[in-house]
Structures are given as structure tokens and as C-alpha cells.
Amino acid sequence: MKYLAIVGTNADVSTNRMLLQFMQKHFASDAEIELFEIKALPAFYELDDESIPESVVAISEKILKADGVIMATPEYDHAIPAVLKSALEWISYTSQALTDKPVLIVGASHGMLGSSRAQAHLRQILDSPELAARIMPSSEFLLGKSQEAFDYAGKLKYPEKIAELNEVFREFILFTEMTIKLLEEKAAVKKDKKFTWEA
Predict the structure, then answer these.
(1) C-alpha–C-alpha distance, residues 73 and 30, integer Å
(2) Where are the chain's structural domains?
(3) CA torsion 186→190→192→195, rounded to 10°?
(4) What residues contact 183, with CB distance under 8 A and at least 6 apart?
């Protein structure tokens, strides 16, 4: 599997980035995970012409080529950061590259609850008609007190959280495989379907 992991913040130092970097190394034998920074994307604005910013084209192309997407979001005032919302607005307004794309949401936060409210907010956004992502159901990975969660080498310290992450990621690989198969079968049925006037 090839996954695109989106760092959902423009902060130079972020435990969400550290979480994705850990996942990239930890699951290297199971999947290829490429990190993508959204800090270079401009704030969303409606285009006056057809010239889409190159950074927006780049993220859309990477999403389209990936088997699935992992999004790591911090929590700001019970919601996702503005920079992540802006990135999603660009995708919605232009390529709609997330349509039917399997998505796993993870998040780290300095507080006790991880990014639980932000993850719920992100699920709601990704379910909108212009994004229409295939969000991993009944699953979330919340890393609370994230400033204390990694050692000097960037490894997650807590065995119970590693075990939880292992289970979530195994399920996401299975979810990705099932989604790809479902979409292939859906496309085949649509291709073979004949209307009464074609019979």
C-alpha cells in the first residue's frame, strides 16, 4: 500500500508530525508512507481564472496516486487548524481528489483527550459532498499529553499506545483493500449495465 500522510498543521514543531514520522518508520514493512506538508499552500480563495496554485496541484496529484490518505490533526479550540481546513477547501473547489479515497484520521494533542473534538470535526468535513472521502469507520487514534509521548529518537514511548496504533493501522490496510475492491466492482457493474433502450 502507498499512503499519503498529511501533516495537518503549519507549526514548525508538532507532535502530529512526529506521530506521522513514527508511523512512517514503524510500518515501513507494511506500507509506503509519504509525508506531505501543507504549510506552503496559500490560504483558500476563489479563483478568478483557471490558474490553480502549483502547491494545490501537487497535493491533489499525490492524493490521486495514493491508495489512501492518513491525516494527523491537532485540536485548536475544539476544531481542526485553519490551515488544514483551507487545504481541504482547495481540494473540494478544484480536483475533488479525496472522493472515494480511504482516509484514516489520527491526532496528537498536549491535553488529556488527544484531538477527539478535532477528529470529529474533520470527519464531518470529509463527509461533505465535494470531498466525499471514504473515512475509516468506528476507529480513531488519540494521543494525549503528546509532548511527553516520544523519546529523543522520535519513538512512541508507551507500549499500550503502540499496540493500539498497530491494530488501527492493520484495520486501515484491510479497509483500504476492501474499498479498492468495492470501487472496482462498482465500476465494472456500471460499465456492464445496459438500459432498456440498449437491449
Answers:
(1) 23
(2) 2-198
(3) 150
(4) 100
**The pairing of beta strand 2-7 with beta strand 68-72:** parallel
Closest Cα to residue 109, out of 70, 80, 152, 139? 80
Instruction: Tell me the three state secondary structure of residue 103.
Output: strand
Residue 67: CB atoms within 10 A of its CB come to 17
- Do 25 and 43 form a contact (C-beta atoms < 8 A)? no
Residue range 184-199, pLDDT digits in tens? 998 888 776 665 555 5
Cβ atoms 57, 97 nearer than 8 A: no
Q: What nine digits make up the cell of 107?
A: 491526532
CATH topology of domain 2-198: Rossmann fold (3.40.50)
Q: Are 162 and 156 in contact (CB under 8 A)?
A: yes
Give the range among 1-5, 57-61, 134-138, 164-168 with minimum mean pLDDT.
134-138
Q: Are 115 and 122 in contact (CB under 8 A)?
A: no
CA distance 76 to 99: 26
Look at residue 17 and tell me whether its pLDDT is greater than 70.
yes
All cell numbers assigned to 139: 476507529
